[in-house]
Amino acid sequence: MRARPFEPACHPGLSGARTRSAPVNTGWIAGPAAAGAALFKGLDDAARIEARAAAYLADPGHVEALLAPLIEALAADPWFEPPLKVSRDPLRTGVVLFDCPAVAISATVTRAAELNRLAAPATVVLSGRVTLTRYIRGGEARMRRWRADPVDAEFNAATAAPAREIAPHILKDGMMLRQDGRTTGHLLTGATHDLVALTATIKAGAAPLTREYAIADGTLVRAVCADDAASRIEMLLTFLRVCGRSDAGALFDDGSRHPAFHLRWAAMREWLMLDARAARDRLADMRTSDANAEIRAAAAATLSALDRRLEQPCPA
């Protein structure tokens, strides 16, 4: 049967591509990918992970050994499907080469023509994590940079100091750059040719928040949770509240004592919506003992409103 114009016939080589790719991918995951991750096994100290990542990026043999089996498979079969997580848009193509508990190693190609065509963004992002990037090709791009105060126990979005622009970098071929996303953010402009980069993202020691600042005046625009574990805890506490699990008070209490200040208040907020009377004593404690001034103020204001509500007599 003839294919419709808007439903092109499947190319014969595409049929069964995933099945044909499976043996190569299984071997690659158990071999080169596992060998790369093994270099970071057992490391939990940020400084040691960073030193190991710098050595990994500096030696081109590591990535060559990682990609060689996939390139060979693709040369033999143009429909080969490699086992890589790929993101692609008009500006950039990114590939996660491997991701382990200590570090994620990725490769990106940034298209100079699209970079130079885009309008200047209105904000700059501070990711919250330290990254090491080796620019295989730097494209002579100009990297504008901003610095902001770190997020500490007293961080308050309403009174956060603005980000300040600092000296830029010009990206050269072979350059290795360390970016501390806990205090700095950057934007790329003006490349003369495409950029090719390898990046190691260090997971240990990350800041709890990803922040976005306005380029015009440096003011904080928004902050979101950068901790995957904290986000999952918050989601699960919301689920418990929606399910009416008032018997899970100990879990909400634990969440209200989490090191991440934003999670502490999120846990208390969920607990109050579930069982305000049970949460009352912990709320009173947070009013005076929490390390974050914004949480202490919110707890004090919430406690006053809660006590007024609890004092109201029940309707007959």
| Number of alpha- plus pi-helical segments | 8
What series of H and E elements makes up the topology? HHHEEEHEEEEEEEEEHHHH
Total count of strands? 12
Distance between the termini: 76 Å
Q: How does the overall form come out from the CA principal axes?
A: globular
Beta-strand percentage range: 15-25%
Q: Can you give the helix content as a percent range?
A: 40-55%
Gyration radius, to the nearest Å? 25 Å
Mean pLDDT: 90
Strand order of the largest sheet: 1-2-3-10-5-8
Which class of secondary structure composition applies to the elements?
alpha+beta
How many separate domains make up the residues? 2
Largest sheet: 6 strands, antiparallel
CATH class of the largest domain: Mainly Beta
The name CATH uses for the topology of the largest domain is Jelly Rolls
Spell out the CATH superfamily of the largest domain. Jelly Rolls
CATH arch. level architecture of the largest domain: Sandwich
User: Which ranges are low-confidence, i.e. pLDDT below 50, for 5 or more consecutive residues?
Assistant: 1-9
Model description:
The chain has 2 domains: 17-225, Sandwich (Jelly Rolls), CATH 2.60.120.10; 228-309. The model is unreliable at 1-9 (pLDDT under 50). A hairpin with a 3-residue loop joins strand 2 (92-99) and strand 3. 41% of the residues lie in helices and 24% in strands. The chain has helices at 17-38, 46-58, 60-76, 112-117, 228-242, 249-255, 261-289, 293-311, and strands spanning 85-88, 92-99, 103-110, 123-126, 130-137, 142-147, 164-170, 176-180, 184-189, 195-202, 209-214, 220-225. Helix 5 (228-242) packs across helix 7, helix 6 packs across helix 7 and helix 7 (261-289) crosses helix 8 (293-311). Strands 1-2-3-10-5-8 form a 6-stranded antiparallel β-sheet. It is of the alpha+beta class and 316 residues long. 28% of the residues are buried.
